Automatic annotation (TrEMBL):
Protein known as: Protease HtpX homolog
Membrane topology: Multi-pass membrane protein
Localisation: Cell membrane
Signal peptide from the UniProt entry: none
Residue intervals passing through the bilayer: 12-32, 38-58, 159-178, 190-216
Residues of the active site: E141
Primary location: membrane
Entry's Gene Ontology molecular function annotations: metalloendopeptidase activity; zinc ion binding
Domain Peptidase M48: 75-295
Family as reported in the entry's similarity comment: Belongs to the peptidase M48B family.
Length: 299
């Protein structure tokens, strides 16, 4: 059952990522058809540069905004040994370990691949959870590393931001042209062109951005289920993770960050309360995650 669940989640993620690429290609086609092929080519080139920047500098960015401090085996031997044990079980290199001063219970993993991965735990998590629960959470985060989820999340986050910046950038530029004080025939032509750009930017903003976000959140939710299953595979015991998730259920919901990548990478996130908020949630509801783990444990 566990391996069937893992295979199912991986298959769903591949489908969603293909759809993501189709959205980017659709935007490039729209720019080529309405403006020029050169504009579409510029969009693709700038997009690739932006994705490369996001891919290589995500870890530095996240550790900076969370004020994370790197720890060694001498600093925190118990945590180091828990991570080391699970890394040996999963056949992955030891990630860099960080502790953040955040009082809320949380954790995240980042890095472009297992050889360049980092794992961060908050002070709040270490204070609240017992050893078995911390092990379950670490297993979840190491599964993200092992399954290259952090790469998928980083790239999909970059793709969403590319769509957002493109749509809003065109709308902002067009609106500035429309509000300019240019008079005469040249000014009139500029305003007509601005209206044309406003339509293009509006299409990307109104249609492209919601679709890109829906796909991004769908990818993120699938990776969370996969990491939960992976934690059970590494620890050989689902009770620790189930207990950790149950504790989070009883707490006040964590605040949502404005950083989409950070939200998607975190272990704990605000729970969706209805169908609509679930569509735009980067994590499944805690009760659904617990139910899946309990189901796998009973088989």
């Amino acid at each position: 059952m566990l391996y069937e669940q893992i295979a199912h989640n991986k298959r769903n993620t591949r489908i969603v990522m293909v759809m993501f690429c189709l959205v980017i290609l659709a935007i490039a086609w729209l720019l080529a058809a309405t403006l020029s092929v050169s504009v579409a080519e510029i969009f693709i080139v700038i997009g690739l540069i932006y994705l490369a920047y996001t891919y290589f500098y995500a870890t530095r960015h996240l550790m900076s905004v969370t004020h994370a401090v790197r720890v060694t085996k001498q600093d925190s031997p118990e945590i180091y040994e828990l991570v080391e044990e699970l890394c040996l079980a999963g056949g992955i290199p030891m990630p860099k370990i960080y502790i953040t001063p955040d009082p809320s219970p949380n954790a995240f993993a980042t890095g472009r691949d297992p050889q360049h991965a980092s794992l961060a735990l908050t002070q709040g998590l270490l204070k609240m959870m017992n050893k078995q629960e911390v092990q379950g959470v670490i297993g979840h985060e190491l599964s993200h590393i092992r399954n290259y989820d952090i790469r998928v999340t980083t790239l999909s986050s970059g793709l969403v931001n590319l769509v957002i910046k493109t749509g809003l950038g065109i709308v902002t530029f067009a609106w500035a042209m429309l509000c300019s004080d240019n008079d005469g025939l040249l000014g009139l032509l500029a305003k007509f062109f601005a209206l044309f750009l406003l339509v293009i930017g509006g299409i990307i903003t109104i249609i492209g951005i919601p679709i890109a976000k829906l796909l991004y959140f769908a990818v993120s939710r699938q990776r969370e289920y996969l990491a939960d299953a992976g934690s059970v595979e590494l620890t050989r015991e689902p009770s620790g993770l189930i207990s950790a998730l149950s504790k989070l259920q009883r707490l006040e919901q964590p605040a949502q960050s404005t950083d989409m990548m950070f939200n998607a990478l975190c272990f704990n996130a605000p729970a969706p309360v209805n169908f609509i908020t679930n569509l735009f949630a980067d994590h499944p509801a805690l009760d659904k995650r617990i139910a899946r783990l309990q189901k796998s444990a009973s088989i």
